């Protein structure tokens, strides 16, 4: 069921400010592509020759996201993500681990960065294809939270063979109706942006319009589980790792067609 503004997956809220930072040393590099800072992680072993386009959550460029991109690279994909927040991620405005800083105008932040991301992302995708692709390269796309609508937008076009998102935000009915390519939904049972009714409505749309999709649903975790979970919890770690593994297997299937 959509809210009064037509959202099924609502805009990011204070729950998106919460989460744990993960330890590890990212191995990718940062370049500028189409005027946007871009993280590039290349496979260290097997390389299937294909590219994953990565659309970040509101935390933008941060250690957890880099490590997830490296995880996709470990599966054989060159993984390329953009900083559409231009160095102004939401984590800069946290008072502490779970609370926004006093005086932070989250609504203004979202309006500002959504407008920029809407403008730069399609140009960036084309630039990545021109700069890093070849005639035989196949593409997939993945988005977390804020990145979900950009996944759906790409799946309405012809570049990507498949896409996936985890704990999405900013999605309306048209994002699901416009899909031309397969979509993997990695979801938390408890999610303030994409609750049970909204999720069921989205699945009804996908089913009724005969879209190709797969729904992965975890109990016991919340919005942000695939990026910002508490790794000291064995179950939260499992859900995070299983989300990434499921997305990789989805891409392996559709990009092998």
Automatic annotation (TrEMBL):
Top-level taxonomic group: Eukaryota
Entry-linked SUPFAM superfamilies: alpha/beta-Hydrolases
Domain annotation Dienelactone hydrolase: ranges: 37-252
GO MF term set: hydrolase activity
The protein's name: Dienelactone hydrolase domain-containing protein
